[in-house]
């Protein structure tokens, strides 16, 4: 009997996948848990033939056993292929191709446990702790006599309830003596076992109501909110009463016909915007969507697009589509009937592009680095919200009289949006700066620009900044005053961050402070941790010299979860005090330089994953003694991890 041990660690989402975000995801199979530093790896495979001898061409029964440590579980053989939103990898058990002894294998398996898996937002079939598969191994007639190796190849994926490892391929081996003339007992399949042949693969169930992939629910809420905000832009709001008057005038003013016309009009809006999201998803493919989040060229392109939109919103120029296209669509929509109304909806979308474009650009940019289906779902939520007033007003026509009149307030909305788009652009520009190591947008400069970008709309709303939408002698209303206070208050709140203060949740979106520049505010007097950057060997040498253990943070320039951990968890007094017992090194893996490439290779070779954030503790002999993967906001959990490695 031969035992093959497959070595794993676990990683956490980043955000991304759990990056936000993340949700999701296709899920990039983030994670690496606390198995790397254990003496015994979490997955142990054993192949045990029932007979010591067998004749060529005979069928031998065998048990393929798997033992799993801790909270790890493996997915069943009947797990369906991942769908558009991702899913776990099914376990496969096969004979090696062209094996000299093993011709083919029949696989029988016990019933798996079916439960909801938060990693994939699906009901999944899993095995935990231990599982034993039964095999019928068909030997070749040409199998050579004597003691021969028999092998089984398996591919499987391990997860806990909060993190996953990438799928792994292993070969499990044993030996059997090939002796012509030997009589081998017929294999007996254990009661209750099922065969892969004829087994119905059950579709993965949807998540229980109220549950969603991590980050996806928040993303859809933002998308829906963007759609609602787009209603109040100058390109959209004035069209509402005009369009509704057109519906009411059709078909002799019948309310039912007006409602039907409104439904078709809304359908045109939803179809066009959702098609844009689908086109982006199809163009990028299942993996590119999640791989572009830290790509400097993609982020630079997003910056350019946002800058153009911002200038347009601030009145520098107007973005318009070719007049010939709009003229032809207008002529087609004027024919009447449902086809005409549908085309009218498409024309409305194109005509409103100048105002809704920044919202669309922000959503599509945010979906890069998320799940493949995220652009589709985001644009569906956005367009549904944008189309909602037309449907609601068709249901309740009397509400038309209560709509506020078009006026200067719409121009004010447009200008404020311009400043917000510029602020958003800076976030993507910061990613480019960090990944390319330009060091132009330092924390202080970035926050100074953000202070300006959020103070300007406040000053504009108060009338101190003369732009479109506010007349010289116009009275300052309560709404304008309150909104101005919000913008100015946020801008003032950013100023302490320029001098080392922590900014809480905002830290995930701004550059980290330079070493030694951060001051802990409201979090005790623990001194700031000193980090060695991208020098594992130097840090290990220092750890040996000081007789300390080495704390390694695999991190990223564009990883929001990594930034959150360093800014908000590592600076808490008890955590900072515990980290002071280690030599600290952070290894960036998402840059374009040789150091990032080397760091990523080191992480992958040691832990079979490249997901971030990922934390490991090494002793002076370079042995891994503890690991933790993924984002955690639980201080006790992280302190427990540090204590286990101290």
Task: Please describe the structure with a list of short key phrases separated by commas or semicolons.
646 residues; alpha+beta; Immunoglobulin-like; six-stranded antiparallel sheet; five-stranded mixed sheet; 19 strands
Task: Write a concise synopsis of the structure shown.
The chain has helices at residues 16-19, 216-230, 239-249, 255-291, 296-313, 323-333, 337-351, 353-367, 374-395, 408-436, 443-462, 478-494, 536-546, 560-569, 573-579, 594-607, 635-644; strands at 2-6, 43-49, 53-54, 59-68, 73-75, 92-94, 102-109, 113-117, 122-128, 130-139, 146-156, 158-159, 168-178, 194-195, 531-533, 549-555, 582-588, 614-618, 624-629.
What does the model show?
The chain has 646 residues and is an alpha+beta fold. It folds into four domains: 42-190, Thiol:disulfide interchange protein DsbD, N-terminal domain (Immunoglobulin-like), CATH 2.60.40; 216-403, no CATH class; 411-501, no CATH class; 531-644, Glutaredoxin. Helices cover 41% and strands 18% of the residues. The chain has helices spanning 16-19, 216-230, 239-249, 255-291, 296-313, 323-333, 337-351, 353-367, 374-395, 408-436, 443-462, 478-494, 536-546, 560-569, 573-579, 594-607, 635-644; strands at 2-6, 43-49, 53-54, 59-68, 73-75, 92-94, 102-109, 113-117, 122-128, 130-139, 146-156, 158-159, 168-178, 194-195, 531-533, 549-555, 582-588, 614-618, 624-629. It has a six-stranded antiparallel β-sheet with strand order 1-2-4-10-7-14, with no helix packed on it. Strands 15-17-16-18-19 form a five-stranded mixed β-sheet, sandwiched between helices. Strand 8 (113-117) and strand 9 form a beta hairpin. Helix 2 packs antiparallel against helix 8 (353-367), helix 8 (353-367) packs antiparallel against helix 9 (374-395) and helix 11 packs antiparallel against helix 12. It is flat, with a radius of gyration of 30 Å. The two termini are 38 Å apart.
């Amino acid at each position: 009997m031969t035992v093959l041990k497959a070595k794993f660690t676990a990683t956490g989402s980043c955000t991304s996948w759990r990056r936000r975000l993340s949700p999701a995801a296709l899920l990039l199979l983030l994670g690496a848990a606390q198995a790397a530093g254990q003496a015994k790896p979490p997955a142990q495979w054993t192949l045990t033939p029932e007979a010591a001898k067998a004749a060529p061409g005979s069928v031998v029964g065998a048990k393929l056993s798997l033992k799993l440590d801790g909270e790890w579980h493996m997915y069943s053989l009947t797990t369906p292929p991942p769908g558009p939103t991702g899913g776990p990898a099914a376990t496969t058990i096969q004979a090696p191709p062209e094996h000299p002894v093993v011709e083919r294998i029949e696989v029988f398996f016990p019933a798996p446990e079916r439960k909801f898996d938060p990693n994939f937002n699906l009901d999944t079939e899993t095995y935990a702790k231990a599982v034993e598969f039964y095999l019928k191994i068909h030997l070749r007639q040409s199998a050579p006599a004597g003691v021969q190796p028999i092998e089984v190849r398996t591919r499987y994926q391990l997860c806990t309830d909060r993190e996953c490892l990438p799928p792994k391929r292993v070969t499990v081996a044993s030996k059997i003596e090939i002796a012509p003339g030997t009589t081998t007992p017929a294999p007996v399949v254990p009661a209750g076992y099922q065969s892969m042949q004829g087994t119905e693969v059950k579709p993965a169930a949807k998540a229980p109501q109220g549950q969603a992939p991590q980050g996806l629910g928040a993303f859809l809420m933002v998308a829906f909110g963007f759609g609602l905000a787009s209603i109040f832009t100058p390109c959209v709001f004035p069209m509402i009463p005009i369009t509704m008057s057109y519906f009411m005038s059709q078909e002799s003013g019948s309310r039912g016909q007006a409602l039907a016309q409104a439904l078709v009009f809304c359908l045109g809006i939803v179809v066009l915007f959702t098609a844009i999201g689908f086109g982006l998803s199809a163009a990028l493919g299942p993996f590119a969507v999640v791989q572009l989040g830290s790509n400097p060229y993609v982020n630079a392109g997003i910056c350019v697009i946002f800058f153009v939109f911002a200038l347009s919103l601030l009145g520098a120029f107007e973005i318009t589509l070719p007049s010939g296209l709009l003229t032809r669509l207008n002529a087609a929509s004027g024919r009447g009937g449902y086809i005409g109304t549908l085309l009218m909806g498409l024309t409305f979308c194109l005509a409103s592009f100048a105002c809704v474009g920044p919202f669309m650009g922000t959503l599509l940019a945010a979906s890069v680095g998320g799940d493949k289906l995220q652009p589709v779902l985001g644009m569906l939520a956005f367009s549904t919200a944008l189309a909602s007033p037309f449907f609601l007003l068709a249901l309740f026509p009397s509400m038309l009289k209560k709509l506020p009149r078009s006026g200067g307030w719409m121009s004010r909305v447009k200008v404020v949006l311009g400043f917000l788009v510029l602020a958003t652009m800076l976030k993507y520009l910061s990613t480019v700066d960090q990944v390319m190591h330009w060091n132009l947008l330092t924390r202080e400069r970035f926050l100074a620009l953000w202070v300006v970008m959020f103070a300007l709309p406040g000053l504009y709303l108060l009338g101190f900044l003369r732009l479109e939408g506010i007349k010289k002698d116009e009275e300052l209303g309560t709404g304008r005053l309150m909104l101005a206070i919000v913008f100015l208050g946020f801008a003032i709140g950013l100023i302490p961050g320029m001098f080392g203060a922590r900014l809480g949740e905002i830290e995930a979106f701004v550059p980290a402070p330079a070493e030694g520049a951060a001051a802990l505010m409201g979090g005790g007097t623990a001194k700031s941790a000193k980090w060695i950057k991208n020098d594992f060997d130097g840090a290990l040498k220092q750890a040996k010299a000081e007789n300390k253990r080495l704390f390694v943070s695999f991190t990223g320039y564009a990883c929001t979860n990594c930034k959150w951990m360093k800014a908000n968890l590592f600076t808490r007094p008890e955590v900072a005090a515990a980290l002071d017992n280690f030599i600290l090194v952070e290894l960036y893996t998402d840059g374009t330089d040789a150091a990032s490439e080397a760091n990523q290779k080191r992480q992958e070779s040691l832990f079979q994953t490249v997901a971030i954030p990922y934390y490991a503790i090494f002793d002076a002999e370079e042995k891994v003694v503890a690991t933790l993967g993924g984002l955690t906001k639980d201080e006790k959990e992280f302190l427990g991890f540090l204590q286990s490695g101290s």
